[in-house]
Amino acid sequence: MASDKLRFAIFGNTFQSKKSASIHKVISHLERHGARILIDRPFCDFLMRYGQMPSASPEVFDDDRFEADFAISMGGDGTFLKTAVRVGMKNIPILGVNTGRLGFLADVMPDEFGTALNAIYDGLYTTESHTALMVSTGTRQLRNEPFALNDIAVLKRDNASMISIRTCIDGEPLVTYQADGLIVSTPTGSTAYSLSNGGPIIVPRTNTVCLTPVAPHSLNVRPIVISGDSTVTLSVESRSHNFLLAVDGRSETLTEGTSITIEKAPFVTNIVKRPGHNYFASLREKMMWGADKRKD
Q1: Can you say which residues are annotated as belonging to the binding site?
Q2: Is 162 within 8 Å of 156 (Cβ atoms)?
Q3: β-strand 36-40 against 59-61: which pairing, if any?
Q4: Residues annotated catalytic, as ranges
Q5: How far apart are CA 154 and CA 234, in angstroms?
Q6: Among 238, 236, 254, which residue's Cα sits nearest to residue 246?
Q7: CA nearest to 223, candidates 246, 202, 248, 194
Q8: Which residues contact 241 (CB under 8 A, 6 or more apart)?
Q9: Active site annotated at which positions (predicted)?
Q10: How far apart (Å, rounded) are the C-alpha atoms in residues 282 and 147?
Q11: What secondary structure, in 3-state letters, does the chain show?
Q12: Residue partners of 42: CB distance under 8 A and separation at least 6
């Protein structure tokens, strides 16, 4: 595979210039392998604005008009989530280069990129398949992309009182949550917002979805795990007559009475994993899973 001219599409954080300095190292490694390099136009413009663009200018693409063998996400997990949506149904494996903080999804440090790239060219990598979710709201057109790798949540808006969320699973009533909100998360998102609200950690590829209430009024309402093939429908009532819909953190205001349908997206996100790096290793390393401070 070392002689193949692989194509790499690069996406990146466009908010903090200092986190983009490692682009030179990434481009250098790719050029050393003779790779064809493509870069997302907003990221390219950002690099040029702050003088971070390498001298050898790569090809630039707009929107989803690109073809590649791999995608590279440069930033934190937030950037990775945006990259996953952009890649969508192209079924391109994503390598996350962590220039952010936690880096649970983007787990390759800039200094490790060369080793990770060698593993790709030597065929020593694996891919983890992660289910995504899709939300629809009937005839209303959403302002943001309807796909989420982590979670989709309905939340109370501003300082409004808690909201009522009538929830059905495959057309059958489950419960009406009286809460500040409800999180519908994938296994990938189980270690994110859902976990901070008491949801369980769910291993990828289990084909499940978790419903986790946010600050529920009743203590006998607990998170519930359902089949990933199920369709979740929500109807929200609020004293302010509106609420927030957050799709991987991209939020917009909807009016009371808007019907929300959440189901499995028509694609999966494939994440590149290096030898010796898997989900459980990330749990132990990034989240200190099982760490016993009494041994210090």
Answers
A1: 77-78, 82, 150-151, 180, 191-196, 215
A2: yes
A3: parallel
A4: 77
A5: 9
A6: 254
A7: 194
A8: 255, 256
A9: 77
A10: 24
A11: CCCCCCEEEEEECCCCHHHHCCHHHHHHHHHHCCCEEEEEHHHHHHHHHCCCCCCCCCEEECCCCCCCCEEEEEECHHHHHHHHHHHHHHCCCEEEEECCCCCCCCCECHHHHHHHHHHHHCCCCEEEEEEEEEEECCCCCCCCCCEECCEEEEECCCCCCCEEEEEEECCEEEEEEEECEEEEECCHHHHCHHHHCCCCCCCCCCCEEEEEEECCCCCCCCCEEEECCCCEEEEEECCCCEEEEEECCEEEEEECCCEEEEEEEEEEEEEEECCCCCHHHHHHHHCCCCCCHHHC
A12: 14
For the annotated binding site for NAD(+), the residues are 77-78, 82, 150-151, 180, 191-196, 215
Nearest alpha carbon to residue 283 among 197, 190, 199: 190
pLDDT tens per residue, range 120-160 = 999 999 999 999 999 999 877 888 899 999 999 999 987 76
d(CA 190, CA 187): 5
Distance between CA atoms of 226 and 211, rounded to whole angstroms?
8
Structure tokens at 113: 């990129």
Model's pTM, two decimal places? 0.90
Cα dihedral 5, 7, 12, 14 sign: positive
Dihedral of alpha carbons 108, 110, 112, 118, sign:
positive
Q: Which two tokens stand for residue 240?
A: 């302010």
- pLDDT over 80 (residue 4): no
Mean pLDDT of 219-227: 94
Please identify which residue in the block is written with the tokens 């663009």. 53
Please name the residue that has the structure tokens 């296994």.
Answer: 187
